[in-house]
Amino acid sequence: MGRFVKLWKSEETESLVVYNYGAECEQAGQLVISKSSGEITIRQSVPGYAPQESWFLYGMLAKHKAERLFLEKQFPTETSIGA
After folding, report:
1. What is the pTM of this model?
2. Domain range annotation of the chain
């Protein structure tokens, strides 16, 4: 089964970036990237899914993409990843 996750930047400060993630912006989870440490925190699971299901379907890929964004030091308004 292929998976595809979109990420939409919802906030950016000097210290962090917040992305909504999922299949649709209207029904999205949320993660936070620390610009200084690279720590990624899942703030909210994708609504309508159990936390484990949200993590499997969307969270793992969203976190992987967030790690790449931190390493590249680029935080676009919208991005995506598929597997």
Report:
1. 0.94
2. 4-73
